[in-house]
Amino acid sequence: MTRNIHIINGPNLNFLGIREPEIYGYETFEDILHELKTQFSKTQFHYFQSNHEGELIDYLQKNHKIFEGIIINPGALSHYSIALLDAIKYMKCPIIEVHLSNIYQREDFRKNSITAQGAKGVITGFGKYSYFLAVQYLLKN
Ligand code: DQA
User: What angle (nearest 5°) sits at the alpha carbon of residue 20, between those of residues 131 and 45?
Assistant: First the structure.
């Protein structure tokens, strides 16, 4: 059972609450993280966000030995970053890709996730609950 969960958010997810709230919601990620910590009080959450592909890859490389479970929302990088996919592929722990919006209901360029090929599974379209569902999976596996 995973007790240490790393949440990694990609570009523009630091602007949750401000950015297209009708799509991504009115809460900031700090609000969501607070709710996760309250609901899963025995779980240790670690959070990293970057707008830069290379920084996300550096973070994965630096911590790959200590990860027990990863929830990643690569943002737009999902749709084109082979470099991030390559990094995801050498993670040894379960890694779940999440999206707030349902990427299949949106523009064609969002319908394919390259990075998802390296994930255990994908949870998309449940708003902030995409993260909650991913935590539930990791706690049971
Ligand atoms: C997103 C979907 C992506 O297409 C978009 O670029 C994002 C957010 C989501 O959580 O719905 O930045 O990953």
Answer: 25
